[in-house]
Amino acid sequence: MDTTHDIARDQARYDAADSEPRWQKAWEDAACFAAPDVPDGTRPKYYVLEMFPYPSGRIHMGHVRNYTLGDVVARYKRARGFAVMHPMGWDAFGLPAENAARERGIHPARWTYDNIATMRGELKRMGLSLDWSREFATCDPEYYGQQQALFLDFLAAGLVERKEAFVNWDPVDGTVLANEQVIDGRGWRSGALVERKKLSQWFFSITKQVDDLLAALETLDRWPERVRLMQKNWIGRSEGARVRFALSEPVAGAVDVEVFTTRPDTLFGMSFLALSPDHPVTAALAERDPKVAEFVAACRTEGTTEAALETAEKRGVDTGVTVTNPLNGRSYPVWVANFVLMEYGTGAIFGCPAHDQRDLDFARKYALSVTPVVLPKGEDAAAFAQYFSGADTAFTDDGTLINSSFLDGLAVPEAKRRVIEELERLAAGQGVVQWRLRDWGVSRQRYWGCPIPVIHCEGCGIVPVPKADLPVRLPDDVDFARPGNPLDHHPTWKHVDCPRCGKPARRETDTFDTFVDSSWYFARFTAPRHPSPTNRDAVDAWLPVDQYIGGIEHAILHLLYSRFFTRAMRDTGHLSLPSGEPFAGLFTQGMVKHETYKDPDGRWLYPTEVEKRQDGLALIKGTNQPVTVGAVEAMSKSKRNTVDPGAIIDRYGADTARWFILSDNPPERDMEWTEAGVAGAARFVQRLWRLCNGALATLPAAGTPAPDGEAPLRRSTHRTIAGVTEALEGFAFNVAVARLYEFANAIADAKGDDAATAWARREALETAARLVAPMMPHLAEELWSMLRPGAGLVAALPWPEADATLVAADTVTIAVQVLGKLRGTITVPAGASEAEVLAAAEAEENVARALAGKTIRKRIHVPGRIVNFVVS
Ligand code: ANZ
Ligand code: ZN
After folding, report:
1. Which of 86, 477, 544, 741 could form a disulfide with 584 if both were Cys (CB 3.0 to 4.6 A apart)?
2. How many Cβ atoms sit within 10 Å of the Cβ of residue 94?
3. Which residues does 359 contact at the CB level (< 8 Å), separation at least 6?
4. Is there an atom of ligand 1 within 6 Å of 486 CB?
5. Could you give the CA distance from residue 328 to residue 243 in angstroms, rounded to a whole number?
6. For ligand 1, atom 25, which residue shows the shortest CA distance?
7. Angle, to 10 degrees, between the axis of helix 713-729 and the axis of helix 61-79?
8. Is the distance from the beta carbon of residue 262 to the nearest atom of ligand 1 less than 6 Å?
9. Is 0.90 topped by the overall pTM?
10. 232, 305, 356: which to mutate for ligand 1, most atoms within 8 A of CB?
């Protein structure tokens, strides 16, 4: 024990600033958290992983919550005898590093690795039980080189495709923009009107797995229902039909337009046909009709996302061309409408305003016909038609078909079947399954990403970079002063000889979407330095991740892409993983919130600038100006309602921060960070330490056999073990914390110096040290070292076992009935025999009165619950 520690003890205060680094070093020296390369089978494996951070600069409270939750699981499982893998790394490619380069002239690599160094230091101060030997950043060439190797294998296996797709093109910056970078139709940086442009891009063929990606969701019983539903909706399976409508005149060679519909039953209620602005027929019509051309040009400046189209006003233009409905032979106008996406179905729809809200809005706006064809149950047809003479709300539920010829009288599902039969008979359409999921476009025109390892040769076409030449490294000397992709205008980097014919050729200058980097990092952690993407022994032994923890914001894309990647890696022999599923268990944590503050001029204030007085008044520190206290909101830089984890650790220590963040609410819910809450946690840290420190002199020697007689404190101890264990198993960490608060009270209340109590007190304190360990690991070590000097680390101890006889309730309360009517209750020892229970029941005052003068015919006893006397 070093001297600073002794001083702390003399002052009877626990000094986290002294203790925490000391224990962190002890864990590191003992390599407590190193996972075996391959679990040896003597212990079951457990892989716990938190979504790895983007190295943005500093860790925030969201990270603290996420990594504390993961650490509780890791430490608990380790104590339960599992071989635990708990790694950490950095999701290190991405645009902010390039922005830093453009704005401040710092090289993206320098910016990224500096941030990583800072954040690694911050995470280490939290006392997380991580295997740091496995750390990597996705921008390390060792990592992205293996990613390139995976890509080449996917390419060879037909899991990758090159095809044309629309992008948001910034004509001034000469770059493709992400949807979030298009603001009101303009590039976020240049302010130029964004164009929709077709580019050849690389796609991962995720749609090839669509059936399995959907079906396997059913097997993920340790995922939140909500996330499974989000995945399901994203994959979006729709059953419907494709229907061909003959054009009144051929347009650029096309004689008909095909639509996709999920409601072929409503074909007799058709009012118009609408084409996407990007539809080939639209393009041909635009060439001869300036009105159409103008409308299409206007649409190009709108966002390309579904969300953008969802919110944009529905607009259209009548092309003057008509189509014939194959079922009734009538003509309908062809419009071009901004809400029809080229990327879904066929890029064309038929509109049925009575039964589709969007179509109704459109029909009202342009005075198109509205014919109801599905009658709600119990509704009168005439009244319903009357309703639609003015209604603004479509009827989208099931009902009975009307105004629909051979479909009249049928229910919607039956009408769908009949109409598809008829379309197929007429050779005008067929039933189809349509998926919402698109292939995953991974090409990005950026510098700070993983280079896509192919070469374009005029003679040979697309040539994969030979594996021996991997990694294709990013050049260091890049120019960010020029707009566009620095890889593209680098003087030498892209000029290479074709690996096939040797003639001058050109490197692909696109880099991967950073979602690629995070789609397999969990597999790489199992053998982070291996010379190929995976070591089969390691990856097959460790995967799937048993518990994955992260934010709901990644519930769709990241998880879906990872699910694709494990399947693709399986198909290319990089792992076995029979289920194909990377994450057996998923937990999504809530957000960390804080009050918001504004000064008298309406400017946001940081919590550190505000002083909250006892009387509830809030003032600006220093000036004492009044502060307006606003809503409790998710911590965000823009509202300045953030609390810096580093400052909290400086002031209170990591254990206090961890304890508070676990105590406030169930981890899946949002929690509010408050100064009072942290202070309360800090007091509890001191309280536990003082309970222990104050008792030390009176405790029997460690390992003393139990004396005769049993102190009541022992029951508290073992019930706490059982309660905390159950809570940790169920992710109810706030409940575990609450049980430990109660336990501290029980220890404090157990007065008495008799041998049995003193022995029980040692047992209780030792147990407390071990039970708080997953949550407050440093304090746990400190307490343990006081109680059992030289007995090793808590981090290496097994989890305490509850003694079942001490856990069981010591008494039970039983209801006593006479002829089914409640007459009284009795309280008996938990282990009482039936004879004892019946005797006590008969003796109960009220019961005895009810039995007086009667003959007992039958005694019914449900142990622990009820006694009923049948009398006559
Ligand atoms: C006619 C109709 C009548 C429709 C009706 C709905 C109700 P989900 O469930 O998402 O698959 N649609 C088809 N392709 C589209 C595209 N590319 N852009 C925009 N909308 C498109 O939705 C399928 C429905 O969305 C289809 O069924 C079609 O409108 C529309 F009473 O066809 B429906
Ligand atoms: Zn060539």
Report:
1. 544
2. 22
3. 271, 351, 352, 353, 394
4. no
5. 13
6. 261
7. 120
8. yes
9. no
10. 356
Beta-ladder partners of 318: 335
Question: H helices within 553-704, ranges in order?
Answer: 557-571, 645-652, 654-663, 675-695
d(CA 530, CA 38): 13
Contact 560, 213 (CB under 8 A): yes
Q: Give the C-alpha separation, 431 to 619, whole Å.
A: 68
Atom of ligand 1 nearest to the CA of 351: 1
352: Cβ contacts below 8 Å, ≥ 6 apart:
263, 266, 267, 269, 270, 271, 359, 373
Identity of residue 630: G
- Residues listed for the chain: 872
pLDDT at res. 8: 44
Phi, psi of 79 (to 5 degrees): -65, -30
Nearest-angstrom CA–CA distance, 773 and 652: 17
Q: What is the pLDDT of residues 513-549, one digit of tens each?
A: 999 999 999 999 999 999 999 999 999 999 999 999 9
- Give the integer Cα–Cα distance in Å for 297 and 281: 15
CA 840 to each of CA 702, 846, 867: distance values in angstroms, whole numbers, following the listed order: 43, 12, 10
Q: Mean pLDDT, the chain, as a whole number?
A: 93
Give the C-alpha separation, 416 to 398, whole Å.
11
The per-residue b/e assignment along 788-825, b for 16 or more CB within 10 angstroms, e otherwise, is beeeebbbebebbebeeebeeeeebebebbbeeeebbe
User: Does ligand 1 come within 6 angstroms of the Cβ of 356?
Assistant: yes
Positive or negative CA dihedral for 297, 303, 305, 308? negative
652-709 pLDDT, tens per residue? 999 999 999 999 899 999 999 999 999 999 999 999 999 999 999 999 999 999 998 8
- Per-residue model confidence as pLDDT tens digits over 25-55: 999 999 999 999 999 889 999 999 999 999 9
pLDDT at 305: 56
Residue type, 347: G
